Amino acid sequence: MVTGCPFCARIAAGEYDEEYDGIVDFEPLNPVTPGHRLVVPKIHVADALEDISVSAQVMAYAANRAKTAGLDPCNLITSAGPSATQTVRHLHLHIVPRREGDGLALPWTGQVRPS
């Protein structure tokens, strides 16, 4: 556990819904669609590039959770580093359920390529 990490604090307080093999999931503070989940390892890993085996376990858990909870179609999204929009430096993967016309645009939707 890392002091000051909001995900470590939530995990320590038991604020998660499901757990399997050191991976947990919970609803984010500001879900962007109904059913939005965060999948987080209980051990503190800064991002998906820090420990590839933990990252693989997180992805496997997220894919299984999305499938078994009926959260598909969905986006499975993670970022590595502040320049890549990672705001909490604890590996986490978003399961973002999608529906036709939900109005949620991904950051690169409609982006114009630089000349």
Report on the architecture of this protein.
The mean pLDDT is 93. A five-stranded antiparallel β-sheet has the order 1-2-3-5-4, covered by helices on one side. The chain is 21% helix and 18% strand. The chain is built from two helices and five strands. It starts with 5 loop residues before the first helix and ends in an 18-residue tail after the last strand. 23% of the residues are buried. It is of the alpha+beta class.
Give me a quick take on this structure:
The chain is of the alpha+beta class and 115 residues long. The chain is 21% helix and 18% strand.
Q: What summary fits the major beta sheet? A: 5 strands, antiparallel
The spatial strand order of the largest sheet comes to 1-2-3-5-4
**Number of beta strands:** 5
Q: Structural class of the secondary elements? A: alpha+beta
Can you count the helices? 2
Strand content: 15-25%
Taken from the alpha-carbon principal axes, the silhouette is globular
Low-confidence stretches: none
User: From N to C, what is the helix and strand string?
Assistant: HEEEHEE
Keywords:
5 strands, 115 residues, alpha+beta, 2 helices, globular, 5-stranded antiparallel beta sheet
Which SSEs are present, and which pair or pack?
Layout: H1 6-12, E1 18-20, E2 23-26, E3 37-41, H2 52-68, E4 74-77, E5 93-97
Antiparallel strand pairs: 1-2, 2-3, 3-5, 4-5
